[in-house]
Backbone:
């Protein structure tokens, strides 16, 4: 089955700096890669996703890049703000079969003033 | 609020008891999922269902059971065979398979504690 590894497990940045979280996946058939943000005590919510036919996607301060050859994808947050502090999860799925998401272990991002 | 509701929010179980966690969605989604969240281990898949009256084991199904008698409902039973059930349980739903949009929407979670 699919295996997703996520690094780092914790990340502390100063407000205004950039943050990068990296994930690798094992199943070359995976074609859908979402990123979820989970604030303390709340449910995970989708912040951005990318499909295997696209190399990069951007939404305001958030961007995701995908390297299919290396089976690697990354989340980039620019101009970080205190409200970006949360746990971020990457995930992978093959939408043509089960569509079930396999998650990474999460990155706790702390944005300090 | 998201169209997927879990209850209760907090649940306490005595050792040896079975407990059932409720998950209901009104998003008309075909697929539903149960995940377990432990600190430092991300979300691990317990069971999933792609269609009514059908479900498959996920990565950590031992000690759990599910049913999918209605499209809207996917209850999870934590049985006494589950040796370490204290965790945060998240239910999710998505449109389904076959190349459809696969965003998963999560419920607010149930925190289960064994006392």
Residues:
């Amino acid at each position: 089955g699919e295996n997703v590894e996520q690094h780092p497990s914790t990340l502390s940045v100063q407000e205004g700096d950039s943050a990068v979280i990296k994930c690798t996946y094992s199943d070359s058939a995976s074609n859908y890669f979402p990123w979820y943000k989970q604030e303390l005590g709340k449910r995970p919510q989708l912040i951005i996703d990318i499909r295997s036919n696209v190399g990069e996607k951007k939404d305001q301060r958030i961007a995701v890049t995908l390297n299919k050859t290396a089976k690697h994808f990354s989340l980039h947050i620019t101009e970080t703000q205190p409200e970006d502090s949360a746990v971020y999860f990457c995930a992978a799925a093959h939408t043509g079969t089960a569509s079930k998401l396999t998650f990474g272990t999460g990155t706790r991002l702390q944005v300090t003033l | 609020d998201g169209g997927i509701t879990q209850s209760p929010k907090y649940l306490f179980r005595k050792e040896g008891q079975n407990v059932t966690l409720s998950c209901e969605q009104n998003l008309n989604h075909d697929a539903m999922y149960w995940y377990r969240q432990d600190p430092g281990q991300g979300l691990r898949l317990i069971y999933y269902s792609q269609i009514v009256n059908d479900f498959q084991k996920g990565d950590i199904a031992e000690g759990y059971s599910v049913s999918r008698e209605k499209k809207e409902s996917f209850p999870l039973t934590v049985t006494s065979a589950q040796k370490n059930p204290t965790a945060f349980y998240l239910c999710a739903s998505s449109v389904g398979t076959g190349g459809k949009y696969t965003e998963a929407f999560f419920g607010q979670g149930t925190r289960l504690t064994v006392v």
